[in-house]
Write a structure and sequence with these properties.
Elements: E1 12-19, E2 24-29, E3 34-38, E4 54-62, E5 65-75, H1 78-83, H2 88-110, H3 117-134
Antiparallel strand pairs: 1-2, 1-4, 2-3, 4-5
């Protein structure tokens, strides 16, 4: 049957766990499988996903078993973020510490010194977490 196109159904699931600093996590697929998720499989410009995020993905057999590729975010867990927000007084302390950290980082950059890669990754992960806390 020439011209017949078969519809390809991509697997779906929810992000079970994701570590920003390490750049990997796992998806609980709707079929019941646990699928490895690497940062390189996320959409361009996306460096993180929150647990509970609904995704669609392609699969391949990686060295860790089933691995996701070509991930597409279907639905972010807005209610999860609101439910787990820290109280304002706790956030005030975190933001003040973050400001001090960024001031030190800025002073080093002004002297022409780039941060160590591991330190830079930790600062980036912290910024993402603070942004998630502040984001409605």
């Amino acid at each position: 049957m020439a011209g017949y196109l078969k519809e390809v159904v991509m697997p779906t699931g929810k992000v079970k766990f994701y570590d920003d600093a390490k750049g990997f996590g796992f998806i609980a697929s709707d079929e019941g499988d646990e699928v490895y998720l690497h940062v390189s499989a996320l959409p361009t410009g996306t460096l993180s996903v929150r647990p509970g995020t609904r995704v669609e993905f392609s699969l391949f057999d990686g060295k860790r078993g089933p691995q996701a590729t070509s991930v597409r975010v279907l639905e972010a867990p807005v209610s999860l973020a609101r439910r787990s927000r820290k109280p304002a007084d706790e956030m005030a302390v975190i933001v003040q510490d973050l400001i001090r950290l960024l001031d030190n980082l800025g002073a080093g950059l002004n002297r022409g010194k780039q941060p160590e890669p591991g330190h830079a990754a930790k600062i980036a992960a912290l910024l993402r977490k603070v942004a998630d806390e502040l984001d409605d």
